[in-house]
């Protein structure tokens, strides 16, 4: 095995480790918010610490790889994809922390606000998060495209939730704080979906050479 | 001038063009939201189209640079910094579009909700956005650090706005929709501040070798 191949394998392993930690963090944050589980919220903060360390390791590995081993063609595309995917994963870690904070506020809050369609959105986002890393590691175009179509469903459900929560607040102004916490959760879930979409797009572009970014079908709001 | 130097100059020029478009988009989106200016909101969408094109051009330029010219040491750090900064700039363009959408809803809305401290936050974010690109181009550490301290002020003001808007909604439930639009604007402004912070951190790390990411002082919520 050449030194370059060895370093690329090392990068792949680190990316899988990062991805798995981010996935666990997201799962815990969703349990924290949906089941109002305090312990799950605390677990998210522990994952975040490890995610931030690996984020820096991956960045350093990429710089070393480019500086010392000068990868070409498909290897170079893989390295750049890894750098870009890592940025998205790190942000997904931040979002799981945001959800954990909202979950804490939900748990501390006094009123009992209904979860409406939030568990449904959470389920879709969890499936997107699982698939996008598989798409990267296996260079699987169909899986990447599947992530993109799920994102559209998440956006639609989030809009429905938004209107449900507004009419809930208008009917019962004492529930405003809790409803805002739920709105935050739906927003963070939607952004997780956006990052999973970004990763799928990066896979399609860098690994397969298919350009679909900024095509209008996957814009972020 | 070597081919590498020429390509690096080309990259710097494109980055400045991208940055200037993003800055203009942000200024228009702030005018749209703060002064309820419909024309400014429409201008944001035009900037976005050009931003997306240059985003792709920069990505391609970076891949070509790495593949064909194999930059080393400080040049390599510059190219990686450019790639990472470009990701942040593109997201800032998306956020200006988000603000423009909220501005449209504010303009269409019926009630007259007060702007509270939003113009103040907007002013701070505009100053951060200006300084961070100067910091990159001039490799100016003090300017980059200045961006980081302004971000803390933005976060504090945003929390104050959040509580003001909640009590506003509780007192007058008919204003909930408009208050949520304003909450969205403050959130997008805060995220613009976060991206300016990211860029300042990238400048410090890649250009000057100072690592302050994940040090706890600039976490994102």
* Number of structural domains of chain A: 1
What is the H/E string of chain A? HHHHHH
Overall mean confidence score, pLDDT of chain A: 87
Assembly level: homodimer
Fourth CATH level, the homologous superfamily of chain A: Phosphate transport system protein phou homolog 2, domain 2
Major protein interface: A-B, 36 and 36 residues
- Find the structural class of chain A using helix and strand composition: mainly alpha
User: How many strand units of chain A?
Assistant: 0
Give a quick account of the main beta sheet of chain A: strands, pairing sense, barrel closure. Answer: none
Task: List low-pLDDT spans of chain A.
Answer: 217-221
The CATH C-level class name of chain A: Mainly Alpha
Helix content of chain A: over 70%
CATH topology of chain A: Methane Monooxygenase Hydroxylase, Chain G, domain 1
Q: How large is the radius of gyration of chain A?
A: 19 Å
Notes on the protein architecture:
Two copies of one chain form a homodimer. Chain A is built from six helices and no strands. Chain A is elongated, with a radius of gyration of 19 Å. The first copy, chain A, is mainly alpha-helical and 221 residues long. In chain A, helix 1 (3-34) runs antiparallel to helix 4, helix 2 (38-69) packs antiparallel against helix 3 and helix 5 (141-171) runs antiparallel to helix 6 (176-207). Chain A has one domain (3-207): Up-down Bundle (Methane Monooxygenase Hydroxylase, Chain G, domain 1), CATH 1.20.58.220. Chains A and B meet through helix 2, helix 3, helix 5 and helix 6 of A and helix 2, helix 3, helix 5 and helix 6 of B.
